[in-house]
Structure prediction request, 158 residues.
Amino acid sequence: MIRRTVLAMTTASFLAMPAFAQEADIVDTAVAAGSFTTLVAAIEAAGLVETLKGEGPFTVFAPTDAAFAALPAGTVDNLLLPENKEQLTSILTYHVVPGAVMSTDLTDGMEAATVQGGDVTITTEGGVKVNDANVTQADIAASNGVIHVIDAVIMPPM
Prediction:
């Protein structure tokens, strides 16, 4: 009897795991991926955690840790300073588009308005790009939107 109960609980837990994974919001999905620690630290420093855990939907073009590391030395540390919160927020919200935009929705030359207020340009010839950043992984589903992994930090127009 105990063995059957344990087996039933294990099976139920196993079957529930994929449903739980789909329930993760954008922030939790980024944390779980493990390659966005700098992005998550920046989101926290900018005070955007609750927003990106909100209802959404959002499309996030998420730079990897390597993308942040490619910035000039000291850039990330400087942006994380409290006195630079406004600039950091502007950069981060330039990576966010309202709505869930899947890769199948993208067209060559498409422009998308970001939460920051500027537009990003999507190109699809020779691989998908957002401005000058390559999309290296698309359509990572989250409960409140979608993440597209990019290989560079994109900067809003000044």
